[in-house]
Amino acid sequence: HVQLVESGGGSVQAGGSLQLTCTASGFTFDELDMGWLRQAPGTECEMVGGMTDHGRTHYADSVRGRFTIARDNAKNTVSLQMNSLNSEDMARYYCTTINYWGSGTQVTVS
């Protein structure tokens, strides 16, 4: 069955960086697009960005230039490098593919 496990969340000061990693299993990883969502308390879920199976990326306007998505098909992982974090980035971040998503990892910016 499909499993997506996020890691790498934590607390960081404004202006700092974090890297999130999603480890996937249960499907042919290199055949599917992968993405990252986030949700802050009281707000709607927001698409942060994604990478197609061919390596093309797209980002929300709010993170473009600060966040970078990469995938390692050999390891079945997709990462989200987040730089210049600010309070608006504070949320729970979820890895997603098709109609699946993980349990998320919390990012706190102080």
Question: Can you walk through the features of this model?
Answer:
- With 110 residues, the protein is mainly β.
- It contains no helices and 11 strands.
- Strands 2, 4, 5, 6, 9, 10 and 11 form a 7-stranded mixed sheet that branches. It has a 4-stranded antiparallel sheet with strand order 1-3-8-7, with no helix packed on it.
- Strand 5 and strand 6 form a beta hairpin.
- The mean pLDDT is 96.
N-to-C SSE string, H for helix and E for strand:
EEEEEEEEEEE
Q: In percent, how much strand structure appears in the residues?
A: over 45%
What would you call the structural class?
mainly beta
**Shape annotation:** globular
Rg from Cα: 13 Å
Overall mean pLDDT stands at 96
What is the compact description of this entry?
By secondary structure, this protein is mainly beta. The protein contains no helices and eleven strands. The strands form two sheets. Strands 2, 4, 5, 6, 9, 10 and 11 form a seven-stranded mixed sheet that branches. The chain has a four-stranded antiparallel sheet with strand order 1-3-8-7, with no helix packed on it.
